[in-house]
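Narrative of accomplishments. A recurring question from our advisory board has been how the design workflow behaves on a single, concrete structure rather than in aggregate. To address it, we present the structure tokens for one chain from the evaluation set, followed by the sequence designed for it. No filtering or post-editing was applied between the two.
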């Protein structure tokens, strides 16, 4: 490898994000003009979330820095303090690693902390999955803030590329590459039903659901009630087994954890819960479930590739583009019940054969790695605001 290889530092804060970054990290590590650096933080380092940094190491990656930042609290004060601790820790890590480009994905507060530290350290930021919206969560503002702190942008769809440009980013710095999850769907050899049941210790039924419900962080104290309504609707289903994946370390997440554990205890052999399925097990499960249920982005991005339904509850994912396989409903048991009736209707099940994934077909990681290797870094830190055409027909250009 050339001594002049660019050092590309990838920050990952949790299982779901790492699953999306994995194939890009592989591409960076194997590219002759790039050197991969890995910083693990957030949920990866927390015992309650399964110490998933071990999976990064098991996959053959070297972790160059660990940034401890999670407080043992999901209150607003606890999360705000975690953001501050993260910024301090990333400042030290970046000073030692001196990366040429920092890669951040999405909208979590861990990525926001890293972006702040990189910005003042004059490290260019490459941002994945910008331009999207999650109107019910803090993530909306974190994502857009990282976009404005970023220097190169890799979006999951053309509509999102246009939104990043609408925010003033120069078009030549914004690349529509597709959703990072598409690479995993393309590249992994998924488990058979028998293998999956053995690995997870679950028994699949006539109908099966994969449930992930995250707190709606811009609403105060609603997570517990909304999740209770979902559990009430699940109770009305027959011949249906449920696999829960636990929520992220967001405000209000621990209440969902405790409700899930109680529900699984009360429904042995029917309900199962996992801190972290891992990418292979998660995508393998999508082959054999009837729907993804909750408010996770995976129901919008990954599920359509498997031609299964998604019941998207509440407004956490409002503003994202959605395939015809997505059923939106309100966070109350009657709305969720009607969504299940629609999901299992012959008409809807028949329509799934024609579902198309709106988030591309890859190879995403290879496209991004090549831009990271080729894009000129001289002057990259100085950004100009790109103005859209004026409604009165005025020109496009840079301006104040």
């Amino acid at each position: 490898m050339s001594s002049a290889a660019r050092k590309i530092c990838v920050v990952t804060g949790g299982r779901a994000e790492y699953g999306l970054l994995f194939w890009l990290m592989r591409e960076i590590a194997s590219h002759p003009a790039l050197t991969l650096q890995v910083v693990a933080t957030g949920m990866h380092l927390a015992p309650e979330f399964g110490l998933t940094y071990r999976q990064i190491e098991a996959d053959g990656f070297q972790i160059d820095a660990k940034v401890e930042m999670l407080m043992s609290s999901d209150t607003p004060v606890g999360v705000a303090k975690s953001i501050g601790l993260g910024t301090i820790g990333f400042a030290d890590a970046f000073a030692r690693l001196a990366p040429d480009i920092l890669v951040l994905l999405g909208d979590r507060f861990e990525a926001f902390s890293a972006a702040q530290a990189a910005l003042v350290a004059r490290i260019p930021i490459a941002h994945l999955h910008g331009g999207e919206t999650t109107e019910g969560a803090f993530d909306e503002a974190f994502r857009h803030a990282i976009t404005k702190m970023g220097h190169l942008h890799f979006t999951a769809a053309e509509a999102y590329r246009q939104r990043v440009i609408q925010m003033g980013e120069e078009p030549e710095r914004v690349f529509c590459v597709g959703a990072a999850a598409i690479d995993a769907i393309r590249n992994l050899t998924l488990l058979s039903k028998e293998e999956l049941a053995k690995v997870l210790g679950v028994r699949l039924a006539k109908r099966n659901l994969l449930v992930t419900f995250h707190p709606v962080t811009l609403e105060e104290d609603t997570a517990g009630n909304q999740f209770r309504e979902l559990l009430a609707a699940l109770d009305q289903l027959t011949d249906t087994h449920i696999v829960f994946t636990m929520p992220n370390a967001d405000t209000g997440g621990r209440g969902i954890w405790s409700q899930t554990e109680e529900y699984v205890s009360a429904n042995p052999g029917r309900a199962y819960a996992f801190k972290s399925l891992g990418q292979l097990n998660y995508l393998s499960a999508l082959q054999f479930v009837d729907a993804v249920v909750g408010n996770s982005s995976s129901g919008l991005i990954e599920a359509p590739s498997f031609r299964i339904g998604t019941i998207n509850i509440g407004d956490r994912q409002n503003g994202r583009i959605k395939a015809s396989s997505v059923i939106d409903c309100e966070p109350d048991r009657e709305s969720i019940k009607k969504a299940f009736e629609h999901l299992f209707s012959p008409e809807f099940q028949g329509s799934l054969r024609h579902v198309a994934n709106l988030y591309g077909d890859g190879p995403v990681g290879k496209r991004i790695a090549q831009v990271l290797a080729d894009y000129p870094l001289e002057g990259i830190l100085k950004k100009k605001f790109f103005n859209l055409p004026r409604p009165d027909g005025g020109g496009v250009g840079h301006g104040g």
